[in-house]
Q: What sequence folds into this?
């Protein structure tokens, strides 16, 4: 059975302008791999309604699971909840359950639950909330789409609470063989081994160290016996 | 006149599996910003022919310029040149000019220009070469698409040689105001200022430091007078 697939949609001008380096994609990629879900595509779009709605509709049709990050805060450029509602064709407004969480949080700190903060309780109809133990303002799940915050500590907490709810696959095993020869030297036989093991993904990643070329050959797959077998064949060929 | 737009297509399983952290996107974002080109979208896809062709056709139709990274080496998983040719509906084969560059390079090092290395001379019909001063194997430009290597040092060299050939726009100016108040406190007035300056992009990026919340307000635009004016209004409101 093939592994389930996922896509990620990163929403935010700050990454596209080069101001901020995205940290969430790398974290999500690693967490999904652990539970046997293949992250197949990532899109990064700006804070633009049409771009967000269109990317979201493409991705949710093509993959088992979509995870978004960014754009669910209190400021004018936080438009993700409205865009997700538009993509699903549902109504969105401040919802009582989300508002109650935030009201209690601000009350306990003696802070005003003002109109801007109420934006963080805008939840599309039919969505369920994703808990935010870091700063309370919830994410939400609608259909196969999980909407999370962009702040890395909050994103990671939300990923941790959503991952156990997803249908995973056989764990994706990965082994790496370091070969101190350039890719051009090993590419011929490597390609033949890749053909021998069509169910595995065999990649080659070149590096340069102390002026010499080398390659890391990475074998990935969910069948441990095949992965071991391919690694043995590679070691025999390239490290003799 | 609006700034020209660009998109980036990152090709490579190693980023989606969480094995490698992409470094090229951040570099490209900063270089494009310097010449007034708006990076509007990034897509990361796996080494899959259909995914690459379809993403490339979407992006080149929607943006003035597309830059790809990855998948132009000598191994079996390097399929970018073939995918670009398929997207443009043109023939691709080993081309004399690219082969001559590589032949001279390997001759000078006493290395064999074997079949695997000849893959790096596969160039779609009608493309022009992008120089690679680091490891010789060229990138190429076809239509509005610039195809570059994934290895960061090579990618950066190729970006440096392509950027001067692109039509830029007015430089995009950026100023940041740090406010030691949480987003929920400032969001109301900030939204009103964003409405006053529809030609600027005004973003708010929350942070937490020593247990206190703060926000960096970033004002971006190509009209320096407007950027200064907006910054003055923000400073008056939030740092008084």
A:
């Amino acid at each position: 059975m093939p592994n389930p697939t996922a896509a990620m949609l990163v929403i935010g001008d700050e990454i596209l302008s080069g101001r901020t380096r995205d940290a969430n994609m790398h974290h999500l990629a690693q967490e999904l791999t652990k539970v046997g879900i293949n992250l197949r595509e990532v899109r990064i779009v700006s804070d633009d309604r049409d771009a967000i709605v269109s990317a979201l509709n493409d991705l949710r049709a093509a993959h088992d699971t979509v995870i978004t990050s960014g754009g669910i805060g209190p400021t004018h450029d936080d438009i993700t909840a409205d865009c997700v509602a538009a993509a699903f064709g549902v109504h969105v407004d401040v919802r009582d359950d989300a508002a109650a969480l935030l009201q209690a949080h601000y009350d306990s700190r003696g802070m005003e639950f003002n109109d801007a903060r109420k934006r963080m309780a805008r939840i599309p109809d039919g969505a369920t909330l994703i808990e935010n133990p870091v700063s309370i303002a919830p994410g939400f799940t609608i259909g196969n789409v999980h909407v999370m915050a962009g702040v890395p500590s909050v994103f990671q907490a939300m990923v941790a609470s959503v991952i156990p709810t997803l249908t995973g696959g056989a764990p994706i095993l990965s082994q790496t063989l370091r070969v101190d020869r350039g890719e051009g030297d090993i590419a011929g036989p490597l390609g033949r081994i890749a053909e021998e093991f069509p169910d595995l993904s065999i990649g080659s990643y070149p590096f340069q160290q102390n002026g010499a070329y080398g390659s890391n050959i990475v074998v990935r797959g969910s069948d441990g016996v095949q992965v071991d077998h391919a690694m043995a064949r590679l070691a025999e060929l390239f490290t003799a």
